[in-house]
Structures are given as C-alpha cells and as structure tokens.
Amino acid sequence: MEKVSRQTIHWSIEEWVFSKDERDAISKTLAATAGPESVKEFTSHLQLICDIKRRFFDHPSSREIFEKRGQILKDCKAALKHLRKIERGRTVITGPINLETCGTGHPQTDHEVDFILSTFQAAWATVGPLQNFVKILEEYHKENGPVIGRKPADSDNFVKRIAEIYQKHIGAPTGYKDGPFFEIVRISLAAVGPAIEDPSRAIRRALKLVVKK
Fold first, then answer.
1. Per the domain annotation, does 148 fall within a domain?
2. Rounded Cα gap, residues 175 and 42, in angstroms
3. CA-based Rg of the chain, rounded to a whole angstrom?
4. Of 136, 137, 149, 161, which residue is most buried, by most CB within 10 angstroms?
5. What is the pLDDT along the chain (213 residues), one digit of tens a residue?
6. Which residues form the domain of 84?
7. DSSP for residue 176
8. Is-contact 15 27, C-beta < 8 A?
9. CA distance linking residue 157 with residue 176, whole number of Å
10. Distance between CA 156 and CA 152 in Å, rounded?
C-alpha cells in the first residue's frame, strides 16, 4: 500500500493507491483474460473501491453502534431533564446563600444575576431543539437494533462491487478458486486489511447478484 498526499487550496486529501506489487499482481492475473487498456481501466476503478473499503474497515459493529447510540440518547435525556428544571426555576445552580441577603429575593451579586438570566435563556432556547433531537434519535434507535446472528457474507457489498466492474471491463466473473476473479478478490481483500482465508461465501453471494443468467 502507498499513500499519496494531494494538496489543494482549501484542504489536503490523502489518496490511497495500490502498491507496485499489488498492481503487478492484478496485471499478471488478468493478462490472459483482457487487454492492457481494459486492465488499466479496471484497476483504476478497483483502486477506488478498495480505497473506500479501507476507509471504513475499522467501522464499529452494529452492536457497538447500537450501544453508543443508546448511551448518547440516555445522556441527552438526562441533559434535557436538567435543562427543563433550570428553565422552570426548579434547581439551584448558584450559591452558597449569604445570610445578609437571604429573604430579600435577590442574588448576592450582579454577576449571579447575569448568570441566572443567561442560563435561563440558554436553557429555554435549548430545550425545544434538544427535545426534537431526542425524539428523532429515539425513533431511529427503536427501529434499528443490532444485527443478531452470523454476519452475512459480503455485508458491505465490497465483493459485489468488484464483480460489477469486473463484468464491465474484463468479462463475466466466475467463482472458481483457481480463476482470475477469485484471485482478484484475494488481492483486493489483502490490500485493504487482514485477508480472508476463503472468500468463497462472499463471492457466491456477489455472483448471484451480479452475473446475468
């Protein structure tokens, strides 16, 4: 794997590319299957797909996402509860009480007056939007629980996308373990992360969705 830094006026984009060994392996695998231009075009598209896959390789599991979302929802509800109390004057967030001013109905200092007014106004302005956010998040959270059971083969459609561009630029992909498509999938998976020993399940699923009968 190689990394190329591309500078622009406004930001820097890190572009991932195949290493020379990876490009050579792809070219060698497809040499007897397609012409140089087709292989070049295919490799360019494959590199983009691998780059996207690589960026999301460390994406958390559905269980981790569910638990994190649940914690955010819990924290937001707690914050909303506190804000409502502040808005309604039902919680004390200043002090301590000075006996000289106790019973006068006035805070001790001008600073406290400003603080109380500011927090009240901020709480009043925040409750509505936060309540709406909690409602949206809670509805989504209830409808989208963690995936139960074995993770489906090629759940992110990585191999499916490879099969689509292979079919477009090289020819109909096959699932033979000694075939060029199988080897291209191996190379791609090894390039983006820990290689899968046997991608057969992912390939079978991809071919069912892509290859035209």
1. no
2. 18
3. 29
4. 161
5. 445 444 444 444 567 899 999 999 999 999 999 999 999 999 999 999 999 888 876 667 778 889 999 999 999 999 999 999 988 888 877 766 555 555 555 555 677 778 888 888 999 999 999 999 999 999 999 998 876 767 778 888 999 999 999 999 999 999 999 899 999 999 999 998 776 778 999 999 999 999 864
6. 62-143
7. -
8. no
9. 19
10. 9
What is the length of the chain? 213
Same domain, residue pair 75 and 135: yes
Q: Let me know: does 49 contact 32? Beta carbons within 8 Å.
A: no
The residue among 92, 121, 143 that closes a domain is: 143
Please check whether residue 150 lies inside any domain of the structure: no
- Asked if residue 133 and residue 80 are part of one domain, the reply reads yes
Say what the pTM is. Answer: 0.60
Residues 54, 74, single domain; the answer is no
